[in-house]
Write a structure and sequence with these properties.
This protein is 37% helix and 25% strand. The chain is built from 9 helices and 15 strands. The strands form 4 sheets. The chain has a 6-stranded antiparallel β-sheet. α5 crosses α6 and α6 runs antiparallel to α7. The radius of gyration is 36 Å and the shape is elongated.
C-alpha cells in the first residue's frame, strides 16, 4: 500500500491508501528484465553499440568499451572505418552483412573487426542504429603468420622458392623487365661438415642478413635451398646488376666470426636478364645457372653475366650442371646417363 495524509481546510487530517501491489509487480518484472538484458549484452562476445544518426553514442556494452579502451563518445573519434567501400547502410556499413573494418589509433596496435549494422531505426528526425562488432584481431594475426611462413624461409627469414617463383613470374609479366642474380656460397659444405650443422645454419642466417643489407630496399632476396640464394632486381640495367653483384661478393667474402672461430666463405654469382637472355621463369633460371657454373669453372668467388659466357663455355657449363643435378659422378662412360630432357632449352 502507498499511504498519504492531507490536512483539510476544516483542520481535520485525512488519510488515503492506494493498493500498489500490481504496480510493484510490474516494476519487479521490469527490473528483472533489465537485469537479464544487461547481463546478456555485457557478457556478449561482441561489442554492441547504439548510435544516433550523428554518430553519438546512446549505449555501449562492456565488451565494446574494452575494445576501444574506454567508452567512445562518437563514431568519428573511435577511428572505426570499413576496409572496403560498401553501398548504403548506416555509416557505410551495409545492413545485415558482416563488413571487415579496422580501428587505427595513434601509438596503438590496429584492431581488426567484423561489423554488422541494423537498418536505421526510429523516425526520420530521430534515427538510430545498432552496430555489433566482433574482434577478429587474433585471427588476422594468425592468418598473417601462416601466410608469412608459407612463402618465407623458416631459417633465414628471406623469401623461399615458392615466393621466388611467384615474384619472378610477376616481374617477367612487367614491361620493365628484370635481372636475376643466382648465388652459391663457395665452400659452404666444407664449413658445414667441419664446424657442424648448427654453425652451418648460423652461417646461412648471417649470409642472408648481409645480402639484405647489401641490396637496395626494393630488390628481393630469396633462399632457394641449401646454400643457394637468388636476388631479383627490377629492370635490366647492367650497371645496377653488376654493382649489386660486386657488392654481394664483397660482403660475403668478409670473415664470419662464430663462437670464436673465424670462417671464410666466398660467393659465385650468375647474372641473367629478362627478356634479353630469356623470357620465361625456367629459361631465365637456366641462363643464370649457366653463368653461375661458368664462374665456378673459372675458380669461384666472382660474378658473370650470361651474355658474356662464350658459346664454347655454355655446353661445358651446362654439362657440369646436368651431371651434378642428375646425381651421377662424372666419367667418360657417364655421358649416356645424361638424357636430352636434362638439357635446358633457353629459347
Amino acid at each position: 500500500m502507498r499511504a498519504t495524509k492531507h490536512r483539510l481546510a476544516s483542520g481535520y487530517v485525512a488519510g488515503f491508501a492506494l493498493d500498489i501491489t500490481e504496480m510493484k509487480e510490474r516494476e519487479r518484472i521490469l527490473a528483472a528484465s533489465e537485469a537479464r538484458y544487461r547481463a546478456l549484452v555485457d557478457t556478449a562476445s561482441v561489442g554492441i553499440w547504439h548510435l544516433d544518426q550523428l554518430g553519438q553514442t546512446l549505449f555501449a556494452n562492456d565488451r565494446l568499451t574494452a575494445m576501444f579502451g574506454g567508452l567512445p563518445a562518437n563514431l568519428a573519434e573511435s577511428c572505426l572505418r570499413p576496409v572496403s567501400e560498401t553501398s548504403g547502410g548506416p555509416f557505410g556499413f551495409a545492413p545485415n552483412r558482416e563488413v571487415e573494418a579496422i580501428v587505427e589509433r595513434h601509438g596503438e596496435a590496429t584492431i581488426y573487426l567484423l561489423v554488422s549494422s541494423s537498418q536505421w531505426l526510429g523516425e526520420e528526425d530521430q534515427r538510430s542504429c545498432v552496430l555489433t562488432l566482433l574482434d577478429i584481431t587474433p585471427l588476422k594475426l594468425a592468418q598473417a603468420r601462416l601466410e608469412y611462413q608459407a612463402d618465407h624461409d623458416s631459417l633465414t627469414g628471406v623469401g623461399n622458392r615458392m615466393r621466388f617463383n611467384s615474384r619472378l613470374s610477376a616481374a617477367l609479366a612487367a614491361t620493365t623487365g628484370c635481372t636475376l642474380l643466382l648465388l652459391d656460397l663457395d665452400h659452404f659444405k666444407i664449413a658445414n661438415d667441419t664446424f657442424g650443422h648448427g654453425t652451418g645454419d648460423m652461417l646461412l642466417c648471417h649470409a642472408a642478413s648481409r645480402m639484405r643489407a647489401a641490396v637496395r630496399d626494393h630488390d628481393q632476396v630469396f633462399r632457394l635451398g641449401g646454400d643457394e640464394f637468388a636476388v631479383l632486381i627490377d629492370g635490366t640495367d647492367l650497371s645496377a646488376a653488376e654493382t649489386a653483384a660486386a657488392r654481394l661478393v664483397a660482403v660475403l667474402n668478409e670473415p664470419y666470426v662464430l663462437a670464436g672461430d673465424k670462417i671464410y666463405l666466398s660467393a659465385s654469382i650468375g647474372i641473367a636478364r629478362a627478356p634479353v637472355d630469356a623470357a620465361t621463369v625456367e629459361g631465365l633460371a637456366r641462363a643464370a645457372d649457366l653463368a653461375l657454373y661458368a664462374v665456378k669453372r673459372a675458380g669461384r668467388n666472382g660474378a658473370v653475366r650470361y651474355d658474356v659466357v662464350t658459346s664454347a663455355d655454355r655446353p661445358a657449363a651446362l654439362s657440369d650442371f646436368a651431371r651434378e643435378a642428375s646425381g651421377h659422378s662424372y666419367c667418360a662412360g657417364c655421358q649416356d646417363a645424361i638424357g636430352p630432357e636434362t638439357v635446358p632449352n633457353l629459347s
